[in-house]
Amino acid sequence: MTKRLYILSVMPLALALALAGGCAERKSPHDPAGDVHPADWMKSTSEDFHGRKIAAVGLISCGECHGEDYRGEDHGGTSCYQCHDGPSGHPEGYLLSSSANYHGDVVATEGTGGCTECHGEDYRGKEHGGTSCYYCHNGPSGHPREAVWLKYSVRFYGGGHNQATVTRGLEDCARCHGENFNGGTSGQSCNTCHPSESGHPATGFVDRGNAFHGDRYDTNGENYCAACHGADLRGGYTNVTCWDCHNGPSGHPDEGFLDPAHANFHGLEATIRGLDECATCHGADFSGGNTGRSCFECHDGPSGHPAAGWLQSGHEDFHAERLIATGLNYCAGCHGADFTG
Asked: Tens digits of per-residue pLDDT, 120-132?
């Protein structure tokens, strides 16, 4: 056999051995040069989602490629912090209720297993630099601290519980407090503070107390009511329409709004709460605003007095009769405490 033929005859064998050797040298699953992550590594709904894997097995495997500080020195500069908010491991926006990464949504969907990996079974910090979930949350309830959670006007990463209800709905409450809000798995009934049906505070909501619904409407807007009563305010989640008490879309009370002797008389409302309340709907000049109804249809121009009978003795709108029925505060509302203007 010539030398040339010998070489040609052994080449297939050499090639086969080389290929076999290559197959035997499998790449490490943590080889930075390879695409080691599963296809759905970044998809939060997948079983292969990296957050779910880390919660199950810890961060050690991440450090093999991304470095002990996770900044990527051994991994082509790919730092975990390109997506995650520093050493906490939380994604950017995890404290903002408007963010797709809001941690409250993650917990509501997937439970607290991902929290315990770093914060410990009791959420008090474990090996996470002592960072306790209770720095912000009011113990095992998961609510923000009580001073924040129970103050309706506060906006703290989603705000007081009324703000959370407006922006996120009552389903979040029902997850822990039960579908009827009588306690559920939390053992804490919402009805301790809220009447069982309406969900309104037990006192001061209707009688101009510190929880007066008119003030809350002014502060929060129509969505505050719509969260429970529906976008058209005809019942929604509660099946109780606002129009049981209010005179349709105007928002005025249904009873007594035009009766000077009634507690709902609009003149008293203007005296107590000021004319800015009227201007909210009727416009700064009271000529209609977004209602299309001018206050001057009944009132005598900017004075606010009724158009007819205000100076006519014996007329039902005679100002002296109003004074007898309502007291001097009725006049002082516009003319000042000393009635000089």
From this structure: 788 887 655 567 8
Domain regions of the chain by residue span: 42-132, 146-244, 266-335
The pTM assigned to this predicted structure is: 0.37
Beta-carbon count within 10 A of 97 CB: 18
Nearest Cα neighbor of 199 from 175, 218, 180 is 180
Give the chain's residues under pLDDT 50. 5-8, 10-33, 154-158
Nearest to 229 by CA among 205, 198, 254, 203: 198
What would the 3-class secondary structure string for 141-156 be?
A: HCCECHHHHCCCCCCC
Among 208, 291, 287, 212, CA closest to 248: 291
Q: What CA–CA distance (Å, rounded) separates 12 from 63?
A: 43
Side chain identity, residue 135: Y
The first and second tokens of residue 339, run together, are 């009635």
pLDDT tens track for 78-112: 788 777 766 667 887 887 767 888 887 788 777 77
Largest distance between two CA atoms of the chain: 139
The residue written with tokens 């809220």 in the block is 194
- Secondary structure (DSSP) of 254-316: SSSTT-TTSTT-HHHHHHHH-THHHHHHH-TTSS-GGGT--GGGTB-GGG--BSSSTT-TTST
- Count CB neighbours of 289 within 10 A: 17
Tokens of 32: 């930075």
State which H helix or E strand residue 328 sits in: none
Q: Are 77 and 67 in contact (CB under 8 A)?
A: no
CA-closest candidate to residue 151, choices 143, 142, 160 = 160
